[in-house]
Amino acid sequence: MPSLESLLEQLDTRRLPRHVGIIMDGNGRWAESRGFARIVGHREGSRSVRAVTRFSRKLGIQALTLYAFSSQNWQRPAEEVAGLMALLREYLVSERDEIMDNGIRLNALGDLDKLPRMVREPLDALMGESRNNTDMVLSLALSYGGRDEILRACRAMIADGVSPDAVSEELFSQYLFTAGLPPLDLVIRTSGELRISNFMLWQNAYAELHFTDILWPDFREEAFVRALLDFQSRERRCGKTSSQLRQEAETA
Ligand code: IPE
Ligand code: IPE
Ligand code: MG
Known about the structure:
6 strands, 45% helix, globular, binds 3-methylbut-3-enyl trihydrogen diphosphate, binds magnesium ion, Undecaprenyl pyrophosphate synthetase, 14% strand, 10 helices
């Protein structure tokens, strides 16, 4: 198995994805396979969050969006939801210094009004405190659903009295939670599931998708670099042909 160093040597740091989204899945299975309660997997998963965030910042990725809790995850047993909310609070308190010291701006996407106050308060505080940081944007998708996001955008446009002729892709994008973020270039999903589970439906249009069987608590620097190398091996044609892309590169 190649070491992290040798994998890093293969990485072209000038061609990194600008915006990486991660569907962090498999915490429950990680714990259950070891005979632990699911929350133990979520706790270990928060260590992967720390490792991947730190590493993204070090590599120079502009935006990292982590799918931490979906609109549908409210349907889980109350005990698991409470455990996840407690962990989230703990994360927001314990990561404050790391986020501020590394120039990271914290952002959140989703129906934040549904979050309990014990999460909302440290979240709002850290978003406010970090709002002028410019080295990387870390977005947490919390109580987030892609369909919900699209419906909210529609409602907001109608409420603003936008005329049907004015509705363009650019304008629509400005009504989404991701307004102002770079385009989503790469989406990673761990744990072997081959689906999007309501994550960034609009933004996924031309994202490259990387699926890995690794469970989120085991996903650390090495697995992340492998995902980035996979991204760099793709040709992003966006509807064009390979020879058109070559010509464009030559004339650029
Ligand atoms: C992902 O891990 C974390 C959340 C969805 C909150 P899961 O809890 O979905 O883990 P599995 O899929 O059951 O293994
Ligand atoms: C997706 O994982 C949501 C998050 C990672 C937060 P789930 O485990 O909830 O998704 P499904 O149920 O497998 O689609
Ligand atoms: Mg899951």
